[in-house]
Design goal:
heterodimer; A: alpha+beta; 4-stranded mixed sheet; 3-stranded antiparallel sheet; globular; B: Hydantoin permease; about 80% helix
Chain lengths: ~130, ~400
Amino acid sequence: MHLVRDLLDNQVCDARNRKMGKVDGIVLVLREGRPPRVAAIELGMSTLLCRISERLARFAARLERRWGISDGEPVRIPMARIKRVGPDVRAEIDADATTVYDWERWLDRVLIERIPIRGGGTGEPEGERK
Amino acid sequence: MKNLLKVALGVVTGIGGFLDAGTIATCAQAGALFGFRLLWVVALGTLCIICLSEMVGRLAAVSHHTLAGAIRERFGIRYHAIPIVAEVFLDVIVLSAEIGGVAIALQLLTGVGFPWWSVPVAAGAWLLLWRGTFDVVEDGVALLGLVTLCFAVAAYKTHPPLREMLTGLLPSLPPQKPAQYWFIAVSMMGSLICPYVLNFYSSGAVEEEWTEADLGANRMAAGLGMSFGGGLSAALLVAAAMVLHPKGIDGNTYEEIRLTVSIPLGQTGATLFAVALGVTCFGAALQVALNLSYTLAQAFGWNWSENLEPADDARFATTYTIAILVAAIVVAIGFDPLKVTMLAMAFNAVVAPLLVLPLLILMNDQDYLGAHTNGWFSNTVVAFCTLLAFVMGIVAIPLQFMGGT
């Protein structure tokens, strides 16, 4: 497996094929006298921004905490739960049990729910669309 | 039968969805200022957009990945951050130009100043996105866009000389105003190969769940639809060349551009022009706003679909809501929509290479395309497009100052 090509920045879907985000970071464990081991993938704005600017990442994490959006910590998924890599990365977990939808829920609460006009759409569950 | 319907719909979408504020403004000005001399740009731009549309459609049908998503995956966030920032900026300007185009159309029909129309138009666009589904957005507005056939009728009524038109298909420099000539040529290319069209096309293919079985329909829809759209753009240029150019009218306002249709077709033509401008700009406004949501959602891996309820993809719905609000403010302040359009088209030319070059690499990646990677012909065409877009990007900004409107 080529970590950058087959894992980093690829789309992550949960066990029900719901989009969780992109692989924003890869966690490696360094071992004495042995090659590093891929321990987990990370998803989250702070991890993503860290690759562009650490200061920006700290600012974003602070903002997420201050506005009550999330705890500012990335979601970490152990490699043992990754069932497929490639352009689509499949994780055997339930996205709802993680904090990946914190922004979604926050925007829903502060904006979408307050708009008095009901939104349209077919309402098909995300995981069943493909 | 299903594929035939898909092709027919694709062709109609190509006709109705091809023209927008950018193509109408640039093609009319090209004809008004330089007669048939810039027809070659329409031909070249149409060939480019046919190839590019077919490619992004093929990418989506085979890999089920959109252009924006695939660029993030293959080139990483450090590269992708550049086109994302550029596209967000560009899409908001283009959205302002399109909302401004609808507002001007309503001004032409009612006499009420265009800034007053910005909020109702923006509210209408937002409501359609909020309540509608992808099919409503794409097919409904595209069908209404058939009113742009009036450009072809207007061009026919002016009896243009065939020999001079054919001469215009070969590039030639005008005796005067070379800087303005190249600026308009650049703006025309920018309007014909809009970056938003590429990602919107691939997102639409994923929304409609295209598969490899749809590749033939994709090829036909891209080829025929865009050809008809390009033909209507050429017709508008020809009508402007026959009506405005001999009178020395520059086409610097939409009122002047309206003469292109109203002189050959009378009062009916004046109304048809306003309706065509309003409908095409409204359709484009929906596409640009949606594209902004698509681009961000696919770059960051959010839930996305125009077919989902806003509560199920809150970030997606919030993005187009904010974009429409900002664009409406720009128009309400009173910026001249035509000037905003020309500026947006020049920026299109700057941003295009940031997306076209990665597309070329992706189209040769077997992980995404399997056995459907580009052949030598497609590679040559896209390489040429990339080079052309790059040169356009380099010259667009200086020309804006030397010869812009």
